[in-house]
Amino acid sequence: MGSVAMDSDYGVPRELSALQKARALYRPDLPPCLQGTTVKVEYGDAAIAADVAGAHVISHAFPHTYGQPLAHFLRKTAAVPDATVITEHPVVRVGVVFSGRQSPGGHNVIWGLHDAIKAHNANSKLIGFLGGYDLLGRTRDQIRTTEQVNAAMTACQALKLDALVIIGGVTSNTDAAQLAETFAESKCSTKVVGVPVTLNGDLKNQFVETTVGFDTICKVNSQLISNVCTDALSAEKYYYFVRLMGRKASHVALECALQSHPNMVILGEEVAASKLTIFDITKQICDAVQARAEKDKNHGVVLIPEGLVESIPELYALLQEIHGLHDKGVSVENISSHLSPWASALFEFLPPFIRKQIETEKLLAQLVEAEMNKRLKEGTYKGKKFNAICHFFGYQARGALPSKFDCDYAYVLGHVCYHILAAGLNGYMATVTNLRSPVNKWKCVHDDRKAMVTRTSCQSNWEACCSHGELLRQNSSSFLMEDIYRNPGPLQFEGPGGETKPISLCVEDRDYMGRIKQLQEYLEKVKSIVKPGCSQDVLKAALSAMASVTEMLTIMSSPSFSGQATI
Known about the structure:
Oligomer: single chain
CATH architecture of the largest domain: 3-Layer(aba) Sandwich
Distance between the termini: 45 Å
CATH class of the largest domain: Alpha Beta
GO cellular component, one term: cytosol
Helix content: 40-55%
Largest sheet: 5 strands, parallel
Structural class: alpha/beta
Strand content: 5-15%
Number of strands: 15
Pfam family, one: PFK
Protein name: Phosphofructokinase domain-containing protein
Shape: globular
Keywords: Cytoplasm, Glycolysis, Kinase, Magnesium, Metal-binding, Transferase
GO molecular function, one term: metal ion binding
């Protein structure tokens, strides 16, 4: 990687800063299972869909690609007798496309993929398609409809691609799952591999511990939030309402709250679970403002996720009606007269500047200000006049230089893509687990994408956040009242902050496959003990224990039990 970059639009050289030049010299490490030119893979059981009730439907929708075995890539020296060893690496042609919005670190997937295919055969080719990000350009094209899927297959066949790597988030990987199924059904030889890259962090399940870009976005935003906290503490007269990107999921807001310790954070998933209205949320914030004023604190910082409005029942229903009218060509000026009575009343209640575009932070700030002024006049609020400042920390962070963790993670995922291709697998997602540990302890276990995408809805993947959600709840009172603001500082590649990872990643025991393997070892031990000839007492104890465990697991695996899951 050189010190001169080409402008993506005009092809003219642009000068790099000293930092960019230093970063260009960085070489990420690889875990032992990806080092060398030998690909060694162990196949395990087929993964199941988390939604047991929907597994039958999914298996019928994806008959060619659902229920494929787990693929676990091993180091060359691993003593696994049943492992498949691949030493011959013919020339391959691999296509890569960025799908969706930009996410810091995404380019390192290409870097890792390019290094991997060239290391195994110098004559292999990597072909980039027009897609998202600046390296390959940006397009609104999708691979979703029958026509689009067929066009993609035609292009892959014309270019004689051995594999197509699709880099993106939940929607992109869901589309890629359908593409892989169609290719398999049509006997198209191109294999489809997905890579979890999205700054929203909402592609999260047992196998995807986090996504590329999430760490960078949270660190960049946390520094900005910390700066705002310092300003609020200094001025002592402003409440900052900060809206953070993340679409419907609140993962970015939660992680930034853990990193920067603002006074309050409103989480969309908890709002939805508690069925809170906009007025409930307003009252919560007002009560907090009043409690702080009683301690002579007339300032504060409130974090709001981008998709909060979708979690508030009445606002979401209003938006659905408005979108339906927009699709019918109704102008903004005439919206109110076409809405249902209750929706029209709510629409007219909203401040005029909110009606054209609902910016949640401004709406809440306006409602809180009105309520606090009301309490001030009534004499129930003894604090100073409420002053709010609103910010949206969002897309300006998409172009940030990626964190060291995102650089390493993305580069490793690029290598994983080649290993999946070398193993001849179709419809898989490149994943790495045990990410909280150093790179040399990362594990590469891969599941077919259909079982994965059924686990990536906003509500279901929020269940994976229970540990750090609980950490936030434990500290919410002190965050609210004590102003224990924390400043993680700017992104660092070296020094005390260079090796930090998302708090939400580090507080959880996410070695899912490690625990599966541990369970299998226990089962093997039981089999070795309970054999013909063992004592009656041993047999009786084993039967009793296994009957109890089986009954409990059957209940927990039932659809009715899954529906009772709480945040």
